[in-house]
Amino acid sequence: MYSRAEVNRQTGPYEAAITAPIAGWTPRINGEDSADIEDATRQLVEFDTHAQRVLGTDNPALGPMTAILLRTESASSSQIEQLTTSAKQLALAEIDEGDKANALTVIGNVRAMEAALRLADDISEGSILAMHKALMLHQGDFAKEDAGRFRAEQVWIGPGEAGPRLADFVAPHHERIPAAIADLVRFVKRQDIPVLVQVAAAHAQFETIHPFTDGNGRTGRALAQSILRNKGLVGSTAVPISAGLLVDTDHYFAALTAYRAGDAGPIIREFASASRIAASTGTKLVDDLVAQLEDARAKMQGVRADAAAWRILPALVGQPAVNTKYLMSELGFGEMTALRALDTLTARGVLTETTGRARSRVWQHPGIFAVLDSYAAEIRRMSAR
């Protein structure tokens, strides 16, 4: 499979990483970084509180708002791995419409993030494996063989197809993974470390262990969401922290390299910066989506209060492309009830039917998609500065 020259280059001894145990590690943080972490933490808490305040904790749109923030986070996390898709393609993939391969791949990341929040009460080896399984089951038949399983082979990052001797980073030998993950879990369970420091260090340690053959970056960023929820830093929404990391991926990868060399400072500062970006851009995203919801309610004035169309409105925040099959499975509508509600929303200018077909029709909320596209464009502008 490889040229003789490549085989010769890769024949011989190589060095693989051995992760330092961190379960008992006490980070030393200078005053400037400590203030930076406290400020970023405050902004994340304010973002979470703001989402609850503008929606209300009993608002039926709060769950869909978490869903769209989680999908936004998943898209950004995937984009770090050069997997790019649009909000519209993702929404269509959720209802089994469209045929964009990247969108279907990113849906796997959405499922991993969902598992991260669902399992946040008990972060363990089992929950990490469950996140990875949720991710990889959407990556094709080849990936499914390794879904939710620690690797049983050597992996590396950088050049060298036939072997790791020229690689930029050679992950620990696979026999070291169980003990390293157990040590990481013990670190995550500690309560004496600032949460953002814990999130950043745990993520970097996970990426250094590199426990899977594929999907390590996306699973590691899902783990960050799980820790944020586990520690109670945020409780009502998902934090689009990967969008902040996406702004400068070179700094992010350099920070991971520095961590592997023994310096946790850069990755902690990266997560503090990413958290501030997530809080500011996420707050605007929530406000813009709430504005779209209020606009839709205004257009529905005069429709009787018990009409099924009202139940669809909050769901549109999290799923701005719908069909009758989705409404029947997610909201429990009968087919005729769903069609009548969609007709009402279309007549009122809330939704637009986009296929022009007599069957297998799809309705979309153009305003919500415009908000999501604007958010993605802003992150791209920030990364270009």
Walk me through the structure:
The radius of gyration is 22 Å and the shape is globular. Helix 9 (about 195-210) runs antiparallel to helix 10. It is about 60% helix and about 5% strand. A 3-stranded antiparallel sheet has the order 3-5-4. The longest helix is centred in the C-terminal third of the chain and has 35 residues, at about 265-300. It has helices spanning about 5-10, 30-55, 60-80, 85-95, 100-120, 125-135, 140-145, 175-190, 195-210, 215-230, 240-245, 250-260, 265-300, 310-320, 325-330, 335-345, 365-385; strands at about 155, 170, 320, 350-355, 365. By secondary structure, it is mainly alpha-helical.
Task: Give the topology, please.
Elements: H1 4-10, H2 31-55, H3 62-80, H4 87-94, H5 101-118, H6 125-136, H7 141-144, E1 156-157, E2 169-170, H8 177-188, H9 195-209, H10 216-230, H11 241-246, H12 249-260, H13 265-299, H14 308-318, E3 321-322, H15 324-330, H16 335-347, E4 352-353, E5 363-364, H17 366-384
Antiparallel strand pairs: 1-2, 3-5, 4-5
Helix pairs in contact: 2-13, 3-5, 3-10, 3-14, 4-5, 5-6, 5-10, 6-10, 8-9, 9-10, 9-13, 12-13, 13-14, 13-17, 14-16, 15-16
H-E string: HHHHHHHEEHHHHHHHEHHEEH
Supply Rg.
22 Å
- State which percent range the strand residues make up: under 5%
Shape descriptor: globular
How much helix is in the residues? 55-70%
Major β-sheet annotation: 3 strands, antiparallel
Distance between the termini: 43 Å
How many helix segments? 17
Q: On the 0-100 scale, what is the average pLDDT?
A: 91
